[in-house]
């Protein structure tokens, strides 16, 4: 190892866990640490996180990963040049700038408590559910931060009082982390990045600033909102009391946008990240494309204050890997997530079983918050292997639904194909180590699926953004050199007619999930 070796750290704050990964200039991991944190579910449809626990999980991961890399002989303290942050998007919190304490738990992106707020606004606003879509690219939905903020303003007295007194600060998880890591009550920086801001419903996609007409319509005061910055620039130095004090935070992206950078997705290329949910994004270039088929228009990335913005079409799936966790934690069918591949592999089909994990409704392209989970086609023949396989298939069917819509919106000229005329889906996230899942995905899509050697591209993307800002990497390194890393390709093997019939059965299962939110408990 050379004495002048440089490193970039990446904080990856997800829905169920936090990790910190240290990369060298070759973009290889040289140290990491991960911890899970508590999922708080006060009642059906509600999901919360303790912001203080998240903060401590970040602190612990940075310290442990640094210790591991140092023990392996890397001079991280002397060579660390920057830190990037990537985070679960939309998750919303409000805190006191005087005390630094949250005024309520963070309301998680999949939380569905704001259904009544959404229905009220749809009735009050002239263009209903799509009233703000032209400016922010998003429909009115429980998914997005603005609805969660309205709920906090209307239902938590401490939040209302804090806003009235000028003491309250709003932010998504990136904002909370940056504010605390750059000083907190002692001058912490109140900022967010364009990708996270694009998921609040409050940012204008063209101006990349908070949209005043939207703020006025929702009665959200601009004074509680953070400053919006690009995805790759020096934001501020880590403050005292942190393991990496003095190191600049130089990159920040929402997790799915970070994965696009980690996958080096250029215009016309798409990636699907399989985590708690699944998120498919297609880079559409420097112009906003508004979907006519149930997708979201969003920002892809903006790699520098003066860099052009890249936009994307996105399909968000609420429950993907979380369905596997449900099999493990709630039903006890498996004892670890890794076991599902072997269990599902004991059968060659789901035996006519179709499982739609609409635990808190359905996101893209259906957008039905009245949907609830169903499992149909069960017979005396059905066993737990069929249930396991149906769970894996549910993830793949949902991705197919999104990609079908994406193909329609993008058109023939909006997607990049290889020299064989094939559209390649780039995949990443922890679940993609499951080879059976990837093969099922290729079979149901009828197109190849490409898995990189390092499937944790979310953390890598945040590292790239930070390293780009301080000169560790160039855009050529990211989009040309490192994009050529070895990968595994899964090609479809299923008969196209069988794949079509299975999807028709899946759509029948989808229709059975509607209008179930008010079932008697």
From TrEMBL:
NCBIfam families: glycerol_kin, PRK00047.1. Coiled coil: none annotated. It catalyses: glycerol + ATP = sn-glycerol 3-phosphate + ADP + H(+). It comes from Kalanchoe fedtschenkoi (Lavender scallops). Residues 9-262 form the Carbohydrate kinase FGGY N-terminal domain. Belongs to the FGGY kinase family. GO terms for biological process: glycerol catabolic process; glycerol-3-phosphate biosynthetic process; triglyceride metabolic process. This is glycerol kinase. Pathway: Polyol metabolism; glycerol degradation via glycerol kinase pathway; sn-glycerol 3-phosphate from glycerol: step 1/1.
């Amino acid at each position: 190892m050379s004495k002048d070796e440089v490193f970039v750290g990446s904080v990856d704050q997800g829905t169920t866990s936090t990790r910190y990964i240290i990369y060298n200039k070759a973009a290889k991991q040289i140290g990491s640490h991960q911890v899970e944190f508590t999922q708080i579910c006060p009642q059906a449809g509600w999901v919360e996180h303790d912001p203080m626990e998240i903060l401590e999980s970040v602190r612990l991961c940075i310290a442990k990963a640094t210790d591991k890399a140092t023990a392996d002989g890397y001079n991280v303290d002397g060579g660390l040049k920057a830190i990037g942050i990537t985070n679960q998007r939309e998750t919303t919190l409000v805190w006191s700038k005087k005390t630094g304490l949250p005024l309520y738990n963070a309301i998680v992106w999949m939380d569905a408590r704001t259904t009544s707020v959404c229905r009220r606004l749809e009735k009050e606003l002239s263009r209903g559910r799509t009233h703000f879509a032209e400016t922010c690219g998003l429909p009115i939905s429980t998914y997005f931060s603005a609805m969660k903020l309205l709920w906090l303003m209307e239902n938590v007295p401490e939040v209302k009082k804090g806003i009235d007194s000028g003491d309250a600060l709003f932010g998504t998880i990136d904002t909370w982390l940056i504010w605390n890591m750059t000083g907190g009550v002692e001058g912490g920086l109140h900022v967010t990045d364009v990708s996270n801001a694009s998921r609040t419903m409050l940012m204008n996609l063209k101006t990349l600033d908070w949209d005043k007409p939207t703020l006025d319509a929702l009665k959200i005061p601009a004074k509680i909102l953070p400053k919006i910055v690009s995805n790759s620039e020096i934001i501020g130095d880590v403050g005292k009391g942190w393991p990496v004090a003095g190191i600049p935070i130089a990159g920040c992206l929402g997790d799915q946008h970070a994965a696009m950078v980690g996958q080096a997705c250029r215009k016309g290329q798409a990636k699907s990240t399989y985590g708690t949910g699944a998120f498919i994004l297609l880079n559409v270039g420097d112009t906003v494309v508004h979907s006519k088929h149930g997708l979201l228009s969003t920002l892809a990335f903006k790699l520098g204050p003066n860099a052009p913005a890249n936009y994307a079409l996105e399909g968000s799936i609420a429950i993907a890997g979380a369905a596997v966790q449900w099999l493990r934690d709630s039903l006890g069918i498996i004892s670890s997530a890794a076991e599902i591949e072997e269990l599902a592999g004991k059968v060659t089909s789901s035996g006519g079983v179709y499982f739609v994990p609409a635990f808190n409704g359905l996101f893209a392209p259906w957008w039905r918050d009245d949907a609830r989970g169903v499992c149909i086609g069960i017979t005396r023949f059905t066993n737990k292997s069929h249930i396991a396989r149906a769970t894996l298939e549910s993830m793949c069917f949902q991705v197919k639904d999104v990609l079908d819509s994406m193909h329609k919106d993008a058109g023939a000229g909006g997607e990049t194909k290889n020299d064989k005329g094939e559209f390649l889906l780039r995949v990443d996230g922890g679940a993609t180590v499951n080879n059976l899942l990837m093969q099922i995905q290729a079979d149901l899509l009828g197109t190849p699926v490409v898995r990189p050697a390092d499937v944790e591209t979310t953390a890598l993307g945040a590292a790239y953004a930070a390293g780009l800002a301080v000169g560790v990497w160039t855009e050529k390194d990211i989009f040309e050199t490192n994009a050529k890393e070895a990968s595994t390709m899964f090609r479809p093997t299923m008969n196209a007619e069988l794949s079509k019939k299975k999807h028709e059965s899946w759509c029948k299962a989808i229709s059975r999930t509607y209008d179930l939110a008010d079932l008697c408990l």
